[in-house]
Design brief:
It is built from 3 helices and 6 strands. Strands 1-2-3 form a 3-stranded antiparallel β-sheet, with no helix packed on it. A 3-stranded mixed β-sheet has the order 4-5-6, covered by helices on one side. The protein is of the alpha+beta class. The chain folds into 2 domains: 40 residues; 99 residues, K homology (KH) domain (GMP Synthetase, Chain A, domain 3, 2-Layer Sandwich), CATH 3.30.300.
Length: 139
């Protein structure tokens, strides 16, 4: 059974439906590629997928180790390249709501950098990750 069903709506838009939940996502071509930029572009979703995957895997590791990361956010910057047009780099900057020990930081970083999307994108795609650890706390 399919995981996602996607329909071309015309006007450089698609609608993807998650089969199990029925949740829908609209995509639109970006302004710099003949679109209106009124929704996520497919390459925006690629970038968001990487960050969401990293947060999810960190969440699993955090839950298993009684570390509270609720409220953690990240900013994602997608950098495009031409010839061929592609995502050249994804920059992810995390902001954690709490301070963590060095051991906890290492645990969370290792988890993030082993998420399935991180391993699934081409090795030529540069992934720049800033965990933003403000203050080092001793255990």
């Amino acid at each position: 059974m399919a995981t996602i069903e996607t329909t071309y709506l015309g006007g450089l838009r698609t609608e993807a439906t998650h089969v199990q939940s029925g949740t829908k996502i609209i995509t639109d071509a970006p302004v710099d590629n003949q679109g209106k930029g009124e929704a996520f572009s497919p390459t925006d979703l690629l970038s968001a997928s990487l960050a969401s995957c990293m947060l999810t895997i960190m969440g699993i590791k955090a839950r298993d180790n009684n570390i509270d990361i609720d409220g953690t956010t990240c900013s994602i910057t997608k950098i495009m390249a031409a010839n061929p047009r592609r995502v050249a780099e994804i920059v992810i900057s995390f902001k954690f709501p709490k301070q963590y020990t060095e051991e906890q930081q290492q645990l969370l970083e290792r988890a993030a950098l082993t998420c399935p999307v991180y391993y699934s994108v081409h090795e030529d795609l540069k992934k720049t990750v800033d965990f933003g650890w403000e203050v080092e706390v001793k255990a």
